[in-house]
From TrEMBL:
The chain crosses the membrane at residues 35-55, 67-88, 100-121, 127-151, 163-182, 202-224, 236-261, 273-293, 325-345, 351-371, 378-401. This is Osmoprotectant transport system permease protein. Its main location: membrane. It is a multi-pass membrane protein. It comes from Labrys monachus. Residues 202-397 form the ABC transmembrane type-1 domain. It is found in: Cell membrane.
Amino acid sequence: MSLGAGKARTADTSAFPAHPAAWRILAGSGGFDKLGLVMAIVTAAALTLPFANFRPNRIAAARGVELLGALPAGIGWPSLLLFILAAATVLRRNGPLFRLLLAGAALIVLGVLIGLVPAALMPPGKALARVAPAAGFWLLAFSFAIILTDAAAKLALGPVRRLLALAVAAAVFAAFLISGHWNGLSVMKEYATYSDGFAGNALRHVELALGSLAGALVIGLPLGIACHRSQKLRGIVLPVLNIIQTVPSIAMYGLMMAPLALLAANYPLLRDLGIRGIGAAPAVIALFLYSLLPVVSNTAAGLASVPPAAVDAAAGMGMTRRQRLFQVELPLALPVILTGVRIVLVQNIGLVTIAALIGGGGFGFYVFNGIGQQAIDLVLLGTVPTIALAFTAAIILDAAVDLLKGQRS
């Protein structure tokens, strides 16, 4: 026990050095880092690729522009040297906090630089011209994002610190958006064109994901409890739910359309309530069916993981079966159940995008419109918020699971 405590104290002091000598030890311990070597190679390759794409109009062929040519005069060479220095730095075995701060700073610099590109490339009076990040930018962002993620994993941040880190990242991203620094980029021009309906589609995306999850919890939790208590029922329910899970999402949405259209045609009340062959109804039902397996299986697994001694002690205290379930078993099984909820929510946030094909709305509206118009920046307008939403949900629910397990810092 004392050994574990000693390790924890060591991790805390190394994560927040207060003395310059401690920082020097943290910043470089000698030798080469394998991940750093790979990411340095990726960074070097990225610096040889176009940093930004220039299009005379929205759907014209793009012309790639390298880093030095894409930035205003006097900024290109310092930026190039900065990224070379950062790549050389991560080659060495640095402390995780140093690497996290370095990668975070590099990502912020990337955000600043890409916002400067439109002013350097856009011809005067050419309102139809478009500027977008190119392969070099995305590879640099990928490289430093991997370094940042690896450093955060090595620091083993507790749930509270992970939530604080998420809040900081969201604040930085919001600052770029609110300041207008990215307004010259083509994805922001697409947003300006579709801004009237963007909030509504964002709300629809969240409603579909959370609504289907809520339905799965209402049905899946009691079903999971029943499966835990009856092996025979479990042997029937879980295979059926596994089969449902294997049906492709587009096929599932298609299967929902015909019966719902018939119901709407024969029962006007259902049609008035919004039950139709297209729209939100088939999307919610399909997502609900996909959500059942993780909820049911994790509920059964969580209850099975409850120590028998705890249940026996509760029975010995005179608790009824119902009291044992709600006061002992479910609270102890909650971290496992919440893990299933996390799986469902992240899965549904992605699957809602496909629902736009049947009129479900959400961010998929921009994805499929962009594909149809061959406008890659309109596709990004739908994919970037979807990824951000799924990433945020995963971090928040992971933190909630750890807090339930007793982790605090």
